[in-house]
Amino acid sequence: MDKKVVIISASLRKDSNSEQLAKAFAQGAERAGNEIEFISLSGKKLGFCTGCLSCQKTFRCYMQDDAAVIAEKIKNADVVVFATPIYYYGISGQLKTLLDRCNPVFPQEYRFRDVYLLMAAADDNPHTTDKVIAGFTGWTDCFPRCRLAGTVFAGGVMAPGEIRGHKALKGAFDAGVHL
To answer: What is the spatial distance between Cα 9 and Cα 83, in angstroms, rounded to a whole number?
Structure first.
């Protein structure tokens, strides 16, 4: 396999359910022989995109914070995995901020082709992810050489660590093995 996989956990909560999905994916991908870089947004400094668009000419953001560093790692990955809690039927604010800050990657040669989205929510209705995925693909659609290669959803989990034993953990692990 030998793919470079960047996994981003967008929850700020300790022992979060979405981060457990990310860790399961990482274990599967590592078992398959891939190089893993796991990044938690917890404790990271992520400034909001100001929409100046100077990055479209300079290929970098004028704000030199953690978002700029992470965007560069995303650009150079073969596979990118985002894990997010679902808040009000959307991705977390931290993840949205990071995706906006990936704007400097857009006009460049980026390596990633496959993107995965891992989600956890208190609501266990299978349609809980519909709006999340629709919103997220707004980002992937802007990168024509990539695709949303897969999603994993853990519904019915609210308290930190409540995901233990959930079938979605195996789904995340298997997705990592087979990426």
So the answer is: 5
Contact (Cβ atoms closer than 8 angstroms) between residue 141 and residue 107:
no
Q: What is the pTM of this model?
A: 0.96
Rounded Cα gap, residues 124 and 177, in angstroms = 25
Cβ proximity of 98 and 70 under 8 Å: yes
Q: Are 41 and 72 in contact (CB under 8 A)?
A: no
SS3 for 35?
strand
Distance CA 75, CA 115 (A): 12
Give the model confidence (pLDDT) of 162-179 as tens digits.
999 999 999 999 999 999
Share of the chain above pLDDT 90, in %: 97
Do the Cβ atoms of 107 and 61 come closer than 8 Å?
no
What digits encode the pLDDT tens for the residues 147-158?
A: 999 999 999 999
What 8-state DSSP symbol labels residue 87? B
